[in-house]
Design brief:
With about 725 residues, the chain is of the alpha/beta class. It has three domains: about 280 residues, Alpha-Beta Complex (2-enoyl-CoA Hydratase, Chain A, domain 1); about 180 residues, NAD(P)-binding Rossmann-like Domain (Rossmann fold), CATH 3.40.50; about 180 residues, N-(1-d-carboxylethyl)-l-norvaline Dehydrogenase, domain 2 (Orthogonal Bundle). About 50% of the residues lie in helices and about 10% in strands. An eight-stranded mixed β-sheet has the order 11-10-9-12-13-14-15-16, sandwiched between helices. The protein is globular and about 90 Å long.
C-alpha cells in the first residue's frame, strides 16, 4: 500500500510502516486520509489478525496535523469539525481492534503523531534524544484535537497530564518513560519492531484500552476525588496568573481535561473536537501558527539566509570581557567553538571567564551537565590580554562599551588578527554600522552582530548589514549565529536599528505616562495586562537609566559629527525629561541601588515615591489608553522600521519583536498584532491616540498600504 506499507508476518502480526511519498515527515495531509482509511479497512477485514505495529520509515515517527490547512480554515469551521471527527474516528477504530496495537516510536512523535501513539495499547520508543513525544498544540494557540486531551488525562491522571497539556513541552525517552507517556525503551531502531511484536505475543489479551474497561479509574483519582476537586478549583487561578486571560487555548484545555473525567469517553472526544474548532478561528491561534511555526521554522531553516555555501567558524575571539563579552564567550564555548576572551588586563578576562564558570557550576548542581562536559566547555575559553593570541581567527566579535570613539580605536587594532577569510562583528545596539565600518580596514568583512542580555538566555541575534557589508559576510554571519544556537534576523543599517529603537519607545512611553500623571503602579499593571513580560519602569531599571543616558549622549556626539539637530529616528522626549533627570539625582537603576524602584537587601522592591515630582497631568488616563499606548507605540515604531526598509520582511519583524523586545507572544509579534486587530481598525485607533496624546502615534499611509499588499498576497 503506497504511503503506508502493510506487511503481515508468519505470526499474523501486521506492521504498518508509514512512509508518505514526497514528504520529509509523515503528516495528516490530504493524502493521509486515504492511507489511513485503507489501512484500517484492511486491518478490520483480517480474519486471523494477532496484532498490529505502527512504525515509520522517516526520521520522525509522525509530525501531526497539516498546519497550512488549519491556517486556511477561514469560515469553513463545519468542514474542519468533520475533518477532526474523521481523524478521531480512525484512532477510535484502532482502539476497537480485537488485537493489541503497538506504536514503535523511532523519532519525534508530536501532536497528532503522539495522539496516534495514545490510541495504541503499548508505546515503545528508541533511546534517542531526538525521539521526543508530546502534545505541543497549546504553543500554537490550539488544543490536541485528535483525542490528546482526553486520552492523556485518562492515561496519566489529571495531575500529571495537565503540565504536559498546558505547557506543551515534549519529553525525551527517559522522562517520557518515567511519567508513563511511553511504556518501554529499546537501545536501537532495529530493536523497535521486534520488541513490539514480542510484547504482542506476550500480551494477546491486551486489546482493550484501560478507559474502555469496566470499572476504569483515573490514575490519581476520579473527578469526585477530594484532591481532584481541589485541583480543579485552584488550577484556573494559577493558570490566569500565567496567561493573564490573553491566551484562550490553555483555559479551554484545562476546562476540557477536567470535564472529560465527568462525562462519557465518546462525549469527551466530541467536546474536544468542538474545542479545537473554537480555537482555530481565534487570532491568537493564527498568529501563533504564522509566527512560531512557519515564521520561526523558516528562519531556522534558512529561508531568509543569503544564498551560498555553508560556513562554519573554527576559531574565534571576543574583545571586551564585560557582561556582554563574557556572555558571548559562553555562547561560543557552549557550542564547542574555541574562543579567546580579550581585555586590557588578565584580571578583567579572568572575571569574564568566571561568568561561564558560574553558569557551569549551576548546571552541574542541577544535574543538567556532567563535570567532564563542564571542564571541556571552560577549556574552550582562553583569557588573554594580547591581540597576537588570537591571530588568524575565523570570527572576531568586538563587545566593548557602546562608545563610538572607543570602538573606533579597538576595531582597526584587533581587525589585524582576523584570518584571511574571516569576518568581524561589532556587538552594538544602536551605533550605525556604516559609520563604524569607516574605522575598519576592510568594510566588506565588517557587520553588526547585536546580542541581547543576558546572552546565555536570549536567543535572538540582530545582524546589521552596513552599506559596504558584502553578501558573503552576511551569509557567514548568519551561519555563525545558527552555529552557536541562536536565532538570526537581518536588518539594514539605521540609528538604533530595529530592536533598540522599538524597545526605547516602550520605556519612553512609560516615562510619558508618568509625565501625564498616571500612577506608576497602574503603568506597570497595564503592561502586565497587555502581555508584556516586564513593565516599562521595571525594565528601565534593569537595563539601567545610566546606560540609557550614555547611549543618548553618544547619539548627541553622532549628531554633531553629522550636523544634525536630532538624528535618532524615534521620539524620546519623556525619557530625557524623566529618566535622565533621575540619573542626575543618582537614581540610575537597579545596579546603582535604585531607580524607579527602591531595592531591599532581601531582593524585594517597591516603587519609588519620588517619581511624583515628574507628574504634570491629572492622571485621568483610561486603563485601555494606558495599555494601548504601551503596545501601539511599539507596533507603530516597528511598522515605521518596516516602511523605511530597516526591516526586510514581516516574519523577521514579528520574531524579532517577541524574542528581542518581549512584545506579547500571544499576538504573534508587532506586525502580526496589526493584522490581528485589522489594519483599518488599527489605523483608526492609532489616529485616536495621536489626536489625544501626540504625533508619536501617527501612522503613515504608505506603511499601512505595505501591510495591505502583504495581506492580499497571502490571501
Amino acid at each position: 500500500m503506497t504511503g503506508f506499507r502493510y506487511e503481515k508476518d508468519m505470526d499474523n502480526i501486521v506492521t504498518v510502516t508509514m512512509d508518505m511519498p514526497g514528504q520529509s515527515a509523515n503528516t495528516m495531509s490530504d493524502a493521509y486520509d486515504g492511507y489511513m482509511s485503507k489501512t484500517i479497512e484492511a486491518l478490520e477485514g483480517e480474519s486471523d489478525l494477532a496484532g498490529v505495529v505502527f512504525a515509520s520509515a522517516k526520521n520522525t515517527f509522525f509530525a501531526g496535523a497539516d498546519l497550512n490547512s488549519i491556517l486556511s480554515t477561514g469560515e469553513s469551521v463545519e468542514d474542519f469539525f468533520n475533518y477532526i471527527e474523521n481523524s478521531k474516528g480512525y484512532f477510535r477504530r484502532i482502539e476497537k481492534l480485537p488485537v493489541p496495537v503497538v506504536a514503535a516510536i523511532n523519532g519525534a512523535a508530536l501532536g497528532g503523531g503522539y495522539e496516534l501513539c495514545l490510541a495504541c495499547n503499548h508505546r515503545i520508543v528508541v533511546d534517542n534524544p531526538k525521539a521526543i513525544v508530546g502534545l505541543p498544540e497549546v504553543t500554537l494557540g490550539l488544543l490536541p484535537g485528535a483525542g490528546g486531551v482526553v486520552r492523556l488525562t485518562a492515561l496519566l491522571g489529571l495531575e500529571k497530564a495537565l503540565p504536559r497539556l498546558l505547557e506543551g513541552k515534549p519529553a525525551k525517552p527517559g522522562k517520557a518513560l518515567a511519567e508513563g507517556m511511553v511504556d518501554a525503551i529499546v537501545g536501537s531502531e532495529e530493536q523497535l519492531v521486534p520488541a513490539a511484536k514480542a510484547w504482542i505475543k506476550e500480551n494477546p489479551d491486551a486489546a482493550a484500552q484501560p478507559w474502555d474497561r469496566k470499572g476504569f479509574k483515573y490514575p490519581g483519582g476520579n473527578a469526585d476525588a477530594p484532591n481532584i476537586r481541589m485541583m480543579a478549583t485552584v488550577a484556573p487561578t494559577m493558570l490566569y496568573k500565567k496567561t493573564r486571560g490573553l491566551m484562550p487555548a490553555p483555559e479551554r484545555i484545562l476546562d476540557l481535561a477536567v470535564n472529560s473525567m465527568r462525562m462519557g469517553f465518546e462525549s469527551a472526544l466530541r467536546a474536544e473536537s468542538r474545542g479545537i474548532c473554537a480555537l482555530v478561528q481565534t487570532p491568537e491561534a493564527k498568529a501563533a501558527i504564522a509566527t512560531f511555526f512557519f515564521g520561526l521554522n523558516g528562519i531556522k531553516n534558512g529561508k531568509f539566509r543569503p544564498e551560498g555555501e555553508r560556513w562554519k567558524a573554527k576559531s574565534s575571539a571576543v574583545i571586551g570581557a564585560g557582561m556582554m563579552g563574557a556572555g558571548i564567550a559562553w555562547s561560543h564555548a557552549a557550542r564547542g567553538l574555541p574562543v579567546y576572551l580579550k581585555d586590557t588586563d588578565l584580571e578583567k578576562t579572568a572575571k569574564g571567564k568566571a561568568y561561564s564558570e558560574g553558569l557551569v557550576a549551576k548546571r552541574i548542581k542541577r544535574g543538567q551537565m556532567e563535570d567532564e562536559d563542564g571542564k571541556e566547555l571552560l577549556d574552550h575559553i582562553k583569557p588573554t590580554d594580547k591581540d597576537e593570541a588570537f591571530a588568524g581567527s575565523d570570527i572576531i566579535i568586538e563587545a566593548v562599551f557602546e562608545d563610538i570613539s572607543l570602538k573606533e580605536i579597538v576595531i582597526p587594532e584587533t581587525f589585524k588578527q582576523l584570518g584571511e577569510n574571516g569576518i568581524y562583528g561589532s556587538n552594538t545596539s544602536t551605533l550605525p554600522i556604516s559609520m563604524l565600518a569607516a574605522a575598519c580596514p576592510d568594510p566588506a568583512r565588517f557587520i553588526g552582530i547585536h546580542f541581547f542580555s543576558p546572552v546565555d538566555k536570549m536567543q535572538l541575534v540582530e545582524l546589521i548589514k552596513g552599506e559596504k557589508t558584502s553578501e558573503e559576510t552576511l551569509r557567514k554571519a548568519y551561519d555563525y549565529v545558527t552555529q552557536i544556537g541562536k536565532i538570526p534576523i537581518i536588518v539594514n543599517d539605521s540609528r538604533g536599528f530595529f530592536t533598540s529603537r522599538v524597545f526605547g519607545t516602550f520605556t519612553d512611553e512609560g516615562a510619558s505616562l508618568i509625565v501625564d500623571g498616571v500612577d506608576p503602579a497602574l503603568i506597570e499593571r497595564a503592561a502586565w495586562k497587555a502581555g508584556m513580560p516586564v513593565g516599562p519602569l521595571a525594565v528601565a531599571d534593569e537595563v539601567s537609566l545610566v546606560l540609557q543616558k550614555k547611549v543618548h549622549d553618544t547619539h548627541k556626539v553622532l549628531d554633531e559629527r553629522l550636523g544634525l539637530k536630532d538624528g535618532f529616528p524615534s521620539n524620546n522626549d519623556a525619557t530625557v525629561a524623566v529618566n535622565h533627570k533621575m540619573v542626575e539625582m543618582e537614581r540610575g537603576g537597579r545596579q546603582y541601588g535604585g531607580g524607579f524602584y527602591d531595592y531591599a537587601a532581601d531582593g524585594s522592591k517597591t516603587l519609588w515615591r519620588g517619581v511624583d515630582q515628574f507628574m504634570k497631568g491629572n492622571s485621568e488616563v483610561p486603563m485601555r489608553d494606558i495599555e494601548d499606548r504601551l503596545i501601539y507605540r511599539q507596533a507603530i515604531e516597528t511598522l515605521r522600521c518596516y516602511d523605511e526598509g530597516v526591516l526586510r520582511n514581516e516574519v523577521e519583524a514579528n520574531v524579532g519583536s517577541i524574542f528581542g523586545i518581549g512584545f506579547p507572544a500571544y499576538t504573534g509579534g508587532a506586525l502580526q498584532f496589526i493584522h490581528g486587530v485589522g489594519i483599518d481598525a488599527f489605523a483608526k485607533r492609532a489616529q485616536e491616540l495621536a489626536e489625544t496624546y501626540g504625533d508619536r502615534f501617527a501612522v503613515s499611509p504608505s506603511a499601512l498600504d505595505k501591510l495591505r499588499r502583504s495581506e492580499k498576497k497571502a490571501a
